[in-house]
Structure formats: structure tokens, C-alpha cells
Predict the 3D structure of the following.
Amino acid sequence: MSDPPVVLVVDDETQIRRFLRAGFEQERFVVNEAASAAEGLRAATLQPLDLMILDLALPDGDGVVQRLRAWSTIPVIVLSVRANEAEKVRLLELGADDYVVKPFGMAELLARARAALRRHTRGPASASSVNVERLKIDFARRAVTLDGMRLTLTPKEYRLLQILAQHAGSVVTHQHLLKEVWGQPHVQDTHYLRIFVRKLRQKIEADPNRPRILLTELGVGYRLGINAEVGEPVGA
């Protein structure tokens, strides 16, 4: 049996740390705590971690994500009372894996934590496929099927879906998608994304007006559903 994942909760509010500890321990995580950014970064250097939950409003919290990303790739989920879209984009571009606005439900945070762990432990280079609801993206065959039936996608539609699948369960910013699909000169052309997302939803969603597979993060980007399942690595 594999070892339980280790999560470090970095928050200066004792009640929040207790709430998160209870929720994660109920799901068989090993929980460590830190009450400041400095303490959290020190803890991350001294012990193996699988995930960090980071409060954005720490008194000494400026630059934590950047400093951590200088030497670590562990998933980081940021918690904040601020729902500012520009701030979300900034943190995601700096290397945070996800962003959850307070107040939040523990079930949602756990689902996002599991998605981040799956993506980290079975990265896009080794995964053979990703399944979301009725949809399967097969990287090896460059094939997309819905209920077992192969879909006809344009090269850009496939590339867009491929990038989202490689980050399954985590939000991907507009700018990252535009850069990867259309190139750096088009990183501000969000209308391209809206058009292609609408076309994709018409092909993959039971009800394109109420999507369950390709989800919108308003003002930030898109994600594939957090219940995405990553296939076995190639050659496993």
C-alpha cells in the first residue's frame, strides 16, 4: 500500500489550520502546519511534501510562490479572501497550481487537492490518457472519444483540449492557452479562445450551455472537470 500524501498547511489563523487538518486527516493525509511564510518555506526544505496549502494573506507572505518555485515543483493551492481575477492570473502564472477563495467548502478543496496530486505524480509526459465524464483524450493515439466514439477535431481544437488535459483538474490561464495554441503574438486575443471553447463544447458536452467537462474560471481561464482521471503512464 502506498504511503499517505503529506500536505503542509501554511496559515496564520489557528482555527483555519485546525479546520484544514481535520478535513485532510479524515481523507488519510498526513498534515503538517506552519503559521508563517518563513516557517512554511523552512518546513518545505526540511521534509518531503506532496502538497502545500498556502494562505495568501500571511504577514510575511509576499513572494512565497516564486521562492518555492525556484527549487520545488510540489503542487501549491493558494487560499485567499480576495476574488480579484488579476491576482488569480498573476499567481497562476507565477507557479501556483490552483486558487480557492475563502470561504470555501472542504469537499471542493479536497477535490482540487487530489487533482493537483494526480497531475503532479503522473505528469503530461508520462500519462497515456485522461478521462473526464464521458470524454477520453488519448495522447499516444492523438485521439479523442466520447462514449467510445471518435470525435473529429481540428488541429487547434485538439491542441487546446490536449493542453487542458495535461493540466486536468487545474485551471489553465487564458494567456497560457493562447501562447501554446496560437503563439506569443496572440496572448491577448481571448476572443479566439471563446470561439474555440464554444465549438469544443458543442462536440463534447451533453448541454453546451451547462458544461460539465470544459469548465470556465471567470476572468482567469478554463479547466477540465476536477473529477478527471489520468491513465497509466506509457510503458507501465
Observations:
- The longest helix spans residues 106-121.
- The two ends are 18 Å apart (CA to CA).
- The helical segments are 14-26, 37-46, 64-69, 85-94, 106-121, 155-166, 174-182, 190-204.
- The chain has a mean pLDDT of 86.
